[in-house]
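Anyone? Bumping this.
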Amino acid sequence: MSRLYAIKDPSSEKRLFINRIIAAFIVVSLLTTGLIIRLIYLQVAGHEHYSSLAKDNSIKIIPLVPTRGMILDRKGKVLAENMPSYSLEIIPEQVSNMDDTLSRLQKLLELSDEDIEQYQKLRKRQKRFVSSSLLVSMDEEQLAKFAVARPYFPGVDIHRQLVRHYPYSDLAAHVIGYVGRINEAEMKDLPISEYRGSTHIGKLGIESSYESQLHGKTGYAEIETNVQARLLNTLKEVNPESGVNLYLTLDIDLQRTAYDALDSFNGAVVAIDIKTGGVLVFVSRPGFDPNPFVVGIANDAYQALQSSENQPLYNRALRGLYPPGSTIKPFIALAGLEFDVISAEQKLFCPGYYQLPGVTHRYRDWKKNGHGAVNLTRAITESCDVYFYRLASALGIDNMYNFLHKFGFGEKTGIDLVGEKSGLLPSREWKRERKNQAWYPGETLITGIGQGYLQVTPLQLAKATATLASNGKVITPFLVDKMVSAQGTTLGIEHSDNTIPLKQEHVNSVVQGMVNVVHSEHGTAKGINKNISYQIAGKTGTAQVLGIKQNAKYDENSIDFKYRDHALFVSFAPVDDPQIAVAVVVENGGHGGSVAAPIAGEVIKQFLQEKYEN
Amino acid sequence: MRTETRHEHFEAPSVLGNLLRRLHIDIPLFIVLLLTSILSFVILYSAGGQDMDVLIRQLSRVGLAFALMIVLAHIDPYQFKRYSAVLFVLGVFLLIAVLIMGQIGKGAQRWLELGFFRFQPSEMIKITTPMMIAWYLAEYPLPPRAKQLLVAVILIVIPTLLIAKQPDLGTALLVASSGAGVLFFAGLSWWIIAAIVTVLAALTPIIWHFMHDYQRDRVLTFLNPEADPLGRGYHIIQSKIAIGSGGVYGKGWLGSTQSELDFLPESSTDFIFAVFAEEFGLVGCLGLLALYLLIIMRCLYIASQAQDSYSRLLASSLAFTFFVYVFVNIGMVIGVLPVVGVPLPLISYGGTSIVTLLAGFGILMSIHTHRKFR
């Protein structure tokens, strides 16, 4: 029906409309009558019934909060527990002379004027019959003093509650995370009945990722109270169910070793149990003490953490993005063999630089005069850049992308921890989409030595190394080994069973190069082969923080500390039966071999020692 | 057709009356709205724990809302008609923007941050949807034909789904009913209405399938509140106790024990009717319902006096939506409808809904006071 044919008839339209207005009025009247009938039913017929519920004795349903599950390490050492804490509570309604009571309490418990002032403010915001806390946590002396004097303080009482405590403080704060007070935004998304009565919720790390398991199931009690909300009688009780205890794959002693080994550097260490994928070490340094977050961290302390140049709140192992530098080379070498663009024995000549045909720009080797003719194993051992420029050029970015992607670069590892970063594995499509530019051949070269757009997390490096060590069986790292509750034990996340098809001899050649990194005369990490009865395969890496100009020279001593190169090291051991893979990133550490490798060496040593002793 | 109401005959030719007329304000509607707002402060003071800050904040919002109403009343309804489609499309775009931002920011998001205040596109769409449908249908002879019906339904479904996805079931319901209201007043055949009701009943299991878990919970809780005494059932049980214990005459102002003892959650917002019913009893409730009916009747009267199809359809739909607002909120508080987040219009604490409501009344006033011949 086109508009041209449409003829409006105003008087019939108006009639129709008035009819509809009348109909609407009838509907409105009927529905309103319905509401009124219901109101009469409630307020007249049901008045007595509801009055008895509301008036003198009210049935109140109070939630019974479940005890939060503990978090333990692989050996059962407690990483997060619930400690009793005692607060001093006052019900203003029951105190006859508040000022007098407060001044006596101040004298007895040696409280500061600020404490009292703060309480006065708090009191004004709350209803008179609601208990408000003068002291959030009392020490033993205060407890003892008040216990004796208690009869002289009507309306004042001690309340016991459980407070989350992290005995290892800053050592594993990024993994374990912490709980904090539920805020308004979180309240909206929470199942309201489960969290009625709960004050805290996991905010970070395992505490947050496994919130629903740790929290437990809230119970409730139906109690009869009088108008003062004083308990008269309990009618019914449904007990709460405690949260499950989480056993992590983490080894807190090993974590300590790695954390201490990083010393004053910022950085990350991730170690994975190759047999299972369980994460043994997950260090991000500097750490922070999660305990103040539980009771509510003071604003200035929080600001200090936030604005600190070292960014202690930042989880470097999970979210830190670094160019992998030379640690990518074993994977590029393997790609070269798998795509058959090179053989293990084929030698390439390294004069100290590489030029693309028709371009004057020289892509330099870290060794100014070059490595001479090197085969694949030696190229890895000595970290010859020119070899990898040529290999990358022969492979092309598409092959490199496809191969590295299989090892998990450029995507999340799937670890059971929220907030993971996926890093960046560049491709032609990515560059077209993001920068609206074509891919340049020079970018292929620098990707081949782990520079350029390529960015990885320490966790990704550890995963890729573990995958390489297990001959291509894709390792998915995870943290929760098992969950133990009254109902029994359940295991953590399901692990994928993908395997990258790789030729054994190809893997062997690459691994040989990595063994030589640690165990040969020319190796870049030969410092860590002392006093060990097994072989370690490793690869050092150095990631530029600052671009060095074409003819300028990088001099570690002459530049600011924060612009110094990052030191990296990936490794696994023992080579004949790989058990542990370790990735280390030391920010501004300089050379991978001298700073990062010893840290991995210590972790491997301690882990294997314990393993063989048992 | 020239019928003047009694109101207009008896308006005192005072300075104030003149001023109000010059401002294009419909005096009867204005007076009832003012009375209801004053009542809202009385009850808010009690429900909000006698907190003056709450009152002052609400006062500033209501003031803003009244100002907006007066501004809109001043605009010629022709302008509303002219920009109906533009405003509607803009609103839909903003809804999509909010949805995308919500997905990036993880979790529900309903507003856009505009520097100094938050803007909820879903509020704007509550008015622009009936504007759009009225504008579209008024182009054609009424009652609408099948093709126009189809287009109108699609136009209603788009914003409704976008809001339901936020997820904000209450607002989605209001937007859908504002659009459906236009169709009804445009003369949608009774047969089709009957058919839709039948189909909806048949579709219930399918809708059930697509609901969020928490939305299902609410329906289940509504059917059996005692099953979840700590959760949503708690609201309904406590609210019934509060209302029932109020009796015929209520416990008097500030006499509510249920909200005082915090038995009644959300006592200042969605469940404020329970506090009102407890303190003022059945008599008070009837009075409040009478105020609402006066507003609705005045609006329907304005619609009946409107001089073109667009104005009629828009005015009547706004009146109808206002009733849906009242019915859904009170129905939920007294336990005859499931709990959806719809505030009690003009009474509940909170700024966004009152601004939109009074904007709607501003448009109604504009329609009434800009008639070319009386």
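Late reply, but here is one note on the structure posted above: Confidence is low (pLDDT under 50) at residues 1-10 of chain B.
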